[in-house]
Each structure stands twice: as structure tokens, then as C-alpha cells.
Protein: GNAT family N-acetyltransferase
Organism: Paenibacillus roseopurpureus
Amino acid sequence: MNIRLRSAVAGDYDAVNAIIREGQDEHAEALPDRFARLDQVVAMGWYRSFSKQPNKEIIVAECGDKLVGVAMLEMKQSPSFEALVPRTYAYLNELAVASTHQRQGIGKKLYTASLAWARERGASSLELNVWEFNERAQQFYASVGMRTLHRMLFTDLT
């Protein structure tokens, strides 16, 4: 299988949205009090903002003429609190592979490309959030060397 990575273009919007929607549906099923089922998961304005700013990037994976994966990245600054060391880091908003192409190394290729993108921009780290129910994602990120930095806890008041 020949996988090609490239920067997304405006015409990729529908395919990118479809791939990310698969993950959104999994989240909505696992946590219906937190995630909605949507047709358009990625807002068009948000998608366009990634193509117009040098500190943002959408990397897509193609297999033949079909889009099968996506990574959405942006550079961020740590909050300016005296108690925190100032730093610039890359944030991985989305990393998703179409269900028809999972477990074929595409996610790892997208992750490796994300690391390279972050390093090229001087990021001190690559960070992301993963929901506790999402054991497959946690296993994937552990397999590429990511570690847990912190956990967010909650108490349900309803």
C-alpha cells in the first residue's frame, strides 16, 4: 500500500470532515453527555484558518486517490503565569485514520510527520488530549512514545 502525505487543500474539506466524523461518532457513543453527533464536525472557518496561517497545518494521508488520514496541528504558547516556564509547543488537535485503513501504519506516518512539523517550528514538545474511554488511542500514543502529563478530573453534579 502506497501512502502519500501532503498538506491539505480546500478541496479536501469533505473527506477530512468524514474521517474526523468517524472519531466524533465514537466519542458521542461513549460520552453522549459531552459529544454531539454532527454531520459537519470540522467548521469550515476553522478548517480554512489552518491553511492560512504558518503556525497551523493539516497533513493528509492519501492511498491512491482516496484520503485516508488526517492530522491537524498548531503552534501554541504556554500561559503567561509566573509559576510556569514560558515555552512554545505544538498541539495535535486531531489525528484520525479512516476505519477502513486503520492498523496499517498510517497513523504512525501522520504522527511522525507531525513531530517533524513541530520540530521545524522550534516546538519544545508535541501535546494532545485523549479521552479516558479511548483505550485504542491511548495504546497507539504509548506505542509511539508519548507519556501522560496530567489528568483532568470531574464530579458529575446532575
Summary: The two ends are 49 Å apart (CA to CA). The domain at 3-128 is CATH 3.40.630.30 (Aminopeptidase). The first strand starts at residue 3 and ends at 7. Residues 81 and 120 are 26 Å apart (CA to CA).
